[in-house]
Amino acid sequence: MDSSPIWPTNPTAIRAMHHTGQFNIKYQIQARQLCKNHPDAHYCAYLFRYLREFAILYCDYVCFIAANDKHKIQIGEGVATSTGVRNKKSLVGINSTLVASDHDFTKLSLTPSVIFFIDVPTTIEDSFYHGNVFVSYKDTVFQPSNAIRHATEFFNAIQLHYTFIPPILCLYTDGGPDHRTTFGSVQISLICLFLRGDFDFLIALRTAPYHSWANPAERIMSIINLGLQGVAIMRDSMNADLEEIFKKADTLDEIRAAANKNIDLKNGLHNCILNIQQMLHSRTERLVLHENHFQHYDPANDQNIDDFFKIILEIDKSLNISETTAEILSKKKDLQEFLKTHCRIRHYSFQIKKCNNINCGICKPIRLPLHVFENIDFLPDPVPSNSNTDCYKEFETIYRTDTTEQFRPTLITAIENAERAPAAILTNTKVRDIIQCFQCGKFRCLYSEKALTAIQKSQFQHVIDEWDYSCGSPLVPEDHALYNVLF
């Protein structure tokens, strides 16, 4: 498009003098830094601050991990495919051409997973971006990211990183389904990690929705991109029979189903990307964060995960690794008792602490000094400041006090918009009477848990005789005897 009618090509040329109009416009490159906001963002920011201050308070005993998964790296099928990272100029031979396929409809891919062991500073003002980074490249087909796999890999990485495992573990992750602390599968996995690592105290905290950028592990992704720049990858070939079977499977589910029927296909797919994984490991180990070279760890296999899960059978022998939905877990009495006595569950956090009860058959003896263990309390919930309700209280003023989630913005909104009547009451078998709106003339059903007594019926009759009901208005005032009886 020729911009000369409204914009001079060269502002110093003579013809630019003829452009006398002024427009409030400018040239600008589109940035991809737009973030979606969430009502709990400020609330979660304070939770993260509390977690960091907690880690500083017990820095001699803490392992602080930030973890995250990067976007998938496509693996080429018969042609080298770019990793998808923005490229810069690279050194190549004088007669070479640096080129790769740009299509993204490949079947196989790798998922980079980052485990960032943070060096806890001495003050909250200091940086939390120093430490050691562990990276793995997982096969998306047979090594999908889920809660139990993450927990297994956390434990394996902790064993690699520490000679003596600290007694306190702090985890900070994003809010994906593999890290959402309200999910039963995540809670089960964290309990396994707590027991397997023999931790005295564990805190798992997640970011607010759409705010994964707040995770320190996110900054590691930009460094990993350096190792993926100018790289194109392609899997090795399998034998003709396996290639024919693989050709007929298009989706991940179809590939997994075919591999379940033919173990040779699963082994073949594993072997055909092995060289790619080793090459990426080699490139990743050359990356550095503050003079600390990145390290790679092997993804957990199915046997590792099964062995890791078995420790939770000490709590409830009926637990199954494939049955971790909230509905199923709610029926496990022994597990629910453990959650009640050892855990604190919040919308954005899950915490576990040893009970230090000699009669407990689950908790091992505490590893912390007794005076330190007795001084540790669960991470508090943010509470508005008395002087400024737009901010929350500081950690030192609220730690070791009883708090609840009552000030979480989304919870406040949910309570305000919620139906006052319990959902179980709103059924046809519990309709006790009807009332007519004097404005629209429509009839509304009235519900109660039990049939109204003679006195309650008399009170209700007095109500409808005294005033005209309108749709949406409360049936009776809050101080009336029928307020929590009739809905």
UniProtKB/TrEMBL annotation:
<protein>
    <submittedName>
        <fullName>Uncharacterized protein</fullName>
    </submittedName>
</protein>
